[in-house]
């Protein structure tokens, strides 16, 4: 048991008896999502009867059936669950700070938008609901001013707490300061309803989002959470008996009625009726025959098939979707950084505007109104809803976009370099994609030392790669580099690497992965990325424009602050739950009625002296 304790985040066995063991896992105190995943992994073991998590005490209690396996085998399987949880969520963010890439996540409300810390219903809604009820009853019941004010301020304590933390750390003022001042000043002035309503609506939105997230995670169970039974596989001509987590690419195994497909692969023999996995666009039962693809999570209903394993574990489509939903890698985009920088630099001017209005008018209401200016929650909501939904949908379509930054780069490409020096697969499909890209105005370059040229591309050989690189960098082109083979040789760090069906890949590396080796998947991925970016901008407008209207209405027309609160939260709700969570994205780059245009080879305009290609 000593060896078992040396796992990630140093879980320790604090008490163990036959059939029961208690672990101390410090990480579950600060990272509830990790704790939830760990419980699911442990509970999926056939030998485990019950798992109980205590986040406050940072403990996990596991009750198991001791008669099924010896103690060493039991602890080996439990250890495997801890390792799997770490693979899925390798770098937790501390509760006291936002992710390093998420400059925008420096205010309390944005932290709630990002679910940086999952809270209970009482933590989010208990005090806010009490404060709202007290503020509504304060006039008819003539409640004391001090009681009502203290209750409202207590409901806003998370905002005040983060302001204090930022000041102690010596950080520059952020949006928390504006929100805190707005709520405190209204409370001091006896306007209790607006700040109480704000804390309640923000908490309610976060609670609804939390419930949706848990439903998603239950809908997409990880392939690593089940199927520990022994499988008989054929590997390099030898028959082996192993667990599903030990499968490797190239293994052959027979699947029979009732079996759940443990990996992604191709059918090489047999015929069977299959119920698709949860993530597949169609849930209708289909018949699979040799040449068809099967994905982890499908279930065999009738018949039997032999599967050649292509991807296993977290690199299956189901595993990638589960990883995306758990880690939410959506805060590395340029848009998020720009919004965060703007929000940080707008705080002091907003305070100055508020002070100037106070000095100019002497009126209390207009001076406080600017403190409710929204500095980009539309971006935050879209990152967490639109971007994440687009990443999940892209995996369903056969292309893996590991972060929102890669999705953003893919949407904004204006040039594509095809490195075909190791060969060009499916040249006819490549030609169709090139025609589409040319119609959209993209420049396509084909790098190969031998082989047939493609219509509509600029062809060059390896000795001209340096010239091409210098030309594209000088022109500040947004370049995608697609390569084939086991390694990616993208020459520029700012270019977007695109890999063609690699045998293995890191789950969070900023590399676009074509999972099935299909040119049309790249076309679909670009369409999804462009659609997601367009929806993000629409959400920003949906939230920002009404916010500006009601803020200026409060400054110049005396609009009641409750109108501001209701407007801001209503538009945020629409952006997140009505417009943001739509699962269907555009998958075609061009309208179906588009007319093909003749393609002419592009010229490579290198700086003088130029050498003709």
Automatic annotation (TrEMBL):
Pfam families: E1-E2_ATPase. InterPro entries: ATPase_P-typ_transduc_dom_A_sf, ATPase_P-type_domA. Gene3D superfamilies: Calcium-transporting ATPase, cytoplasmic transduction domain A (2.70.150.10). Signal peptide: none annotated. SUPFAM superfamilies: Calcium ATPase, transduction domain A (SSF81653). It comes from the Bacteria. Residues 231-325 form the P-type ATPase A domain. It is found in: Membrane. Its main location: membrane. It is a multi-pass membrane protein. This is P-type ATPase A domain-containing protein. The lineage of its organism: Bacteria, Bacillati, Cyanobacteriota, Cyanophyceae, Acaryochloridales.
């Amino acid at each position: 048991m000593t060896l078992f304790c040396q796992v990630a985040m140093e879980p320790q066995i604090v008490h163990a008896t036959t059939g029961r063991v208690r672990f101390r896992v410090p990480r579950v105190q600060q990272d509830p999502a990790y704790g939830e995943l760990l419980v699911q992994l442990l509970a999926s073991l056939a030998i485990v009867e019950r798992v109980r998590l205590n986040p406050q005490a940072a403990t996990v209690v596991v009750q198991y059936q001791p008669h099924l396996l010896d103690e060493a085998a039991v602890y080996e399987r439990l250890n495997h669950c801890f390792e799997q949880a770490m693979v899925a969520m390798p770098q937790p963010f501390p509760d006291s700070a936002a992710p390093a890439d998420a400059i925008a996540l420096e205010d309390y409300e944005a932290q709630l938008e990002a679910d940086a810390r999952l809270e209970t219903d009482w933590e989010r809604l208990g005090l806010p609901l009490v404060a709202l009820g007290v503020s509504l009853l304060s006039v008819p019941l003539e409640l004391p001013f001090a009681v009502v004010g203290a209750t409202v301020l207590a409901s806003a304590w998370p905002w005040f707490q983060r302001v204090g933390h930022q000041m102690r750390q010596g950080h520059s003022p952020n949006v928390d300061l504006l929100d805190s001042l707005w709520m405190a000043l209204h409370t001091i002035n006896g306007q209790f309803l607006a700040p109480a309503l704000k804390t309640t609506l923000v908490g309610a939105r976060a609670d609804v989002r939390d419930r949706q997230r848990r439903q998603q995670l239950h809908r997409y169970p990880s392939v690593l959470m089940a199927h520990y039974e022994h499988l008989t596989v054929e590997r390099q001509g030898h028959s082996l008996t192993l667990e599903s987590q030990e499968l490797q690419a190239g293994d052959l195994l027979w699947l029979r009625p009732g079996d759940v497909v443990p990996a992604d692969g191709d059918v090489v023999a047999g015929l069977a009726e299959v119920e698709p996995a949860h993530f597949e666009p169609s849930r209708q039962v289909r018949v699979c025959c040799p040449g068809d693809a099967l994905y982890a999570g499908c279930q065999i209903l009738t018949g039997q098939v032999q599967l050649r394993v292509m991807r296993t574990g977290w690199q299956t489509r189901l595993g990638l979707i589960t990883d995306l939903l758990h880690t939410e890698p959506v805060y590395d985009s340029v848009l998020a950084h720009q919004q965060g920088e703007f929000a940080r630099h707008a705080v002091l001017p907003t305070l100055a505007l508020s002070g100037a209005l106070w000095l100019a008018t002497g009126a209390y209401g207009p001076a406080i109104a600017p403190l409710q200016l929204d500095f980009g929650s539309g971006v935050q909501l879209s990152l967490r809803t639109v971007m994440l939904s687009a990443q999940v949908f892209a995996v369903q379509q056969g292309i893996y976009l590991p972060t929102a930054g890669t999705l953003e780069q893919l949407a904004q490409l204006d040039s594509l370099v095809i490195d075909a020096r190791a060969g060009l697969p499916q040249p006819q499909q490549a030609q169709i994609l090139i025609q589409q890209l040319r119609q959209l105005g993209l420049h396509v370059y084909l790098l190969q030392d031998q082989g047939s040229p493609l219509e509509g591309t600029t062809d060059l050989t390896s000795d001209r790669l340096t010239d091409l690189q210098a030309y594209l960098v000088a022109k500040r082109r947004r370049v995608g580099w697609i390569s084939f083979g086991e390694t990616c040789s993208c020459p520029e760090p700012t270019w977007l690497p695109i890999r063609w069906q690699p045998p293995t890949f890191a789950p969070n590396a900023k590399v676009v992965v074509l999972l099935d080796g299909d040119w049309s998947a790249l076309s679909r991925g670009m369409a999804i990325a462009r659609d997601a970016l367009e929806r993000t901008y629409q959400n920003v407008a949906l939230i920002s424009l009404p916010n500006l209207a009601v803020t200026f209405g409060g400054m110049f027309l005396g609009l009641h602050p409750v109108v501001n609160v209701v407007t801001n939260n209503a538009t945020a709700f629409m952006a997140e739950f009505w417009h943001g969570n739509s699962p269907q994205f555009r998958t075609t780059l061009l309208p179906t009625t588009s007319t093909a245009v003749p393609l002419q080879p592009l010229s490579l305009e290198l700086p003088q002296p130029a050498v003709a290609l």
